[in-house]
Backbone:
């Protein structure tokens, strides 16, 4: 009895990395980051409920350079995940599904998330 080699799945080395692959992974990663980032909001709300001293402490931490960096990243994560959701919603209607269009939508998601994050921080944080 001869043993035939089992067929193998295509390996990652066969596939060419595309922007849509990267955005798919990034969409999942931002979804996870958003769950983790919600703890920042919960901590702030709990501190506000505990009183002025607790709120002042949390505001001090969030206002530090590191806290601002984390909050900026969290803002980008929220906006990027939203833009990715809009991209998938558009694709639900079988629109923009051609190869070049898919790549353009993926790049638009990334560019829009960066620009919108900068806009939000410019208007609501840096200008305040």
Residues:
């Amino acid at each position: 009895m001869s043993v035939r080699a089992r067929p193998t799945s295509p390996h990652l080395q066969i596939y060419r990395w595309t922007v849509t692959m990267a955005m798919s992974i990034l969409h999942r990663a931002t979804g996870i980051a958003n769950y983790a980032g919600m703890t920042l909001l919960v901590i702030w709300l709990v501190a506000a409920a505990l009183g002025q001293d607790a709120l002042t402490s949390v505001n001090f931490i969030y206002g530090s350079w590191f806290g601002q960096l984390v909050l900026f990243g969290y803002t980008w994560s929220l906006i990027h995940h939203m833009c990715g959701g809009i991209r998938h919603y558009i694709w639900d209607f079988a629109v923009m599904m051609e190869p070049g269009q898919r790549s353009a939508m993926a790049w638009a998601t990334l560019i829009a998330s960066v620009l919108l994050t900068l806009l939000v921080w410019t208007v609501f944080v840096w200008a305040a």
User: Anything to note?
Assistant: The chain is about 80% helix and 0% strand. Residues 19-50 form the longest helix (32 residues). The two ends are 78 Å apart (CA to CA). The CA atoms of residues 14 and 63 lie 46 Å apart.
